[in-house]
């Protein structure tokens, strides 16, 4: 089943709210995953490594 097939099962009266709610949940998941990735890079490279710091910074900037 595709996302669209699943999504069509919702009541049209609440469709907008539901779609916005799902989109916001998806976006929040993206933000959390990117932050976790940035933290892993920082832990792996250490605070002294400019390359690792810059990489973590670029991962976080994707949130914007």
Care to describe what's here?
75% of the residues lie in helices and 0% in strands. The protein is mostly helical and 64 residues long. The protein has one domain. Helix 2 packs antiparallel against helix 3. The radius of gyration is 18 Å and the shape is rod-shaped.
Produce the secondary structure layout.
Layout: H1 3-7, H2 15-45, H3 50-61
Helix pairs in contact: 2-3
Name the features.
64 residues; mainly alpha
What number of structural domains do the residues give? 1
Which secondary-structure class do the elements indicate? mainly alpha
Which percent range describes the beta-strand content? under 5%
Taken in chain order, the helices and strands follow as HHH
Question: Would you kindly provide a brief summary of this structure?
Answer:
With 64 residues, this protein is mainly α. The protein has helices spanning 3-7, 15-45, 50-61.
């Amino acid at each position: 089943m595709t996302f669209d097939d699943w999504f069509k099962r919702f009541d049209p009266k609440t469709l907008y709210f539901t779609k916005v709610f799902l989109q916001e949940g998806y976006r929040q998941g993206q933000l959390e995953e990117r932050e976790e990735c940035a933290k892993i890079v920082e832990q792996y490279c250490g605070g002294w490594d400019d390359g690792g710091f810059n990489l973590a910074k670029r991962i976080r900037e994707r949130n914007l």
